[in-house]
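OP here, attaching both records as promised.
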Amino acid sequence: MKYVDEFRDRGHAETLAGAIKRTVTRPWTIMEVCGGQTHSIVKFGLDELLPEMVTLVHGPGCPVCVTPTALIDHAVVLASIPRVILCTFGDMLRVPGSRGDLFGAKAAGGDVRIVYSPLDALALARANPDREIVCFAVGFETTAPAYAMAAIQARRLGLANFSLLTAQVLVPPAIEAILSAPGCRVQGFLAAGHVCTVMGYEEYEDLARRYHVPLVVTGFEPIDVLEGVAMLVGQLEAGRAVVENQYTRSVRREGNVAAQAALREVFEPAAQTWRGIGEILRSGLKLTAAYAEFDAALRFRDILAKSGSAGGEDPDCRSGLVLQGLLKPTDCEAFGKRCTPERPLGAPMVSSEGACAAYYRYRGHARGEA
């Protein structure tokens, strides 16, 4: 990628870390709300460059990680129906439900296809008119417009065999849930640049005002993250609480207006259960009444109702605390022992954006080998 080296320059990173050290006068706790940023922080050791008074904690910034077990169970059930082709992103295969995962469903004969875009699932629906194509719609606001366009195209093409199993979540309500939780120790947020590329950051301005907490829209490379931390520390030390945009090469305040219009046409906010956290009002997306014909949960409701869901997490899994920034992955007793990428107890160990996966991959897993 052209110019990527300038965002990974070690000298520049050390200069930024030095500037932060000279600025900070008291302890601050900052949360990044993006799994991509978490992986960058852990991979490049950015937290180890920062002064001790600046603590980075990891938030619920991985949509795969917060997909509730009940929806995983539903996906497994649908994948087991002979006439169904279930389409999903690859990092959903090993996410455990209460009764297994999609990898197991595929091994048992279910037709589970890995896709790279919802439009791939749409192409399968056109090519297989005698099959039901269910697209597992997991993601933040970043991927939601693509699911919306798939539904719009399905209607235009008259594809009655295409549906969405929706598990999409919205970032601002999650930030508000963290801020309003008893004992919240987060004093500043690094907001995800790709989400804001789509949605803009006007909604974050309201959060900054109401909770008097600064937010900085930040990119994903090491220099992006360190610049975002420097901007947050500057605000915190000055007693300011506004939204700033570090990621100006991609993000505008108003976001992508065309993508937002597609979202409004197809989806509306709804209460959503976040795995390990619980229900958050208006934090998910559901299909509007006009597009309810493409709702897999409604299309297969009788089958799903009969199958039920055991719900719940493995009692040894503490990923809920990790997702709320209350625990580092290596503080979990199961990390690297009972919980590994091959045999995960929770989604953060297998998702490509999971915090536990990042620590396992980049910080070693000596704890599990001890």
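Record two, same layout:
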Amino acid sequence: MFLTGLKVISLTHFLQGPSGVQVLADLGADVVKVEPRGRGAWERSWSGADTYLNGESVFFLLANRNQRSLTLDLKTGAGKEILWRLIRVSDVLVENYRPGVLPKLGFGYEVVARENPRLIYCSCSGYGPGGPYTEYPGQDLLVQAISGLASLTGGADDPPTPVGASVVDQHAATLLALGVLAALQGRHKTGRGCRVDVNLLAAALDLQIEPLGYYLNGGRLRPRSPNGLASTFHEAPYGIYRTRDHWIAISLSPVPRLAEATGSAALAAFTEDDRFERCEEIAAVLAEILRERTTREWIELLRPAGIWCAPVNGYAEVVEDPQVLWNQSFLEFDHPRAGRVRVLGHPLRYDGNPPPFRCRPPGLGEHSEEILRELGYSSAEITELRAQGIV
């Protein structure tokens, strides 16, 4: 694949770091995940919805494929020397420890750059490498709150509503991969590496590029809607509405066309000029109309009329959705302990194909001996490192 031959050190845990590194691994990079000896990375011992397959954390399994695991005690001199050997032969180091942790261990950017000037050093944090929030916990929900994202979501009478998935973590993971690839292209021109900083707060703001851009330039954002409108800046009928049996999403669509398709005289009384100024009135009228039929009935009526609409699916529908299946969005593999595992695959296609699945998420320290041999350690030295509890 595109990144074959690229050597990446992953000092990451939780979701942002591992998921971003997994993108590089999917594209062919040789990723060595350096984990604490004994307990391993944090995501091995926690899983959302308490989801484990024969004791294996699905949280770990979903974001660590195509990587090798090396366990190290970085508080020991011998453990640090192993990491230094890795650094000297690697192209990229990605870390998402709390700001200041790696420098205290002796692996800050300035020191590492002197040892390997070509290394791309990517640091991930909650709020940035410095500033007043440096010591605050960087977590998706907290960043949704601080960034204003949660305040945009929900109905008028609802509390601020966080997005129901870790969107900030995952967007930051994508920015991580983007930043590393940009820095590698820069190195191709200059011969030198650089430091790349990615943080959750910046990712959360980037997700709000449209509404925040309007606000910064005098745009009049509305309060959250009591009638189903899904944003504070789109015109009606943009929102989610209850039907007789479920819910339906209706996006940007001309009100006269919607009035004609539904046969509503009340909607026909509104003009296109009313779509912003009277958006709540339009939404309220539409909400009453849509309760008269089922979601399927409305879809079958509105789509042929050119109305942008879609059912509101739960996961039971998503995993059987014909387009999701056609896109081959899910990846399945066998694991020696977890058994059959099903996760989301790489989201892009290259010449019509996904990147090859090279290896399952590794067992803790599974590749330690293999990696140490590549770094020049003899069998006797590896045995001694194990005996001393360093690997």
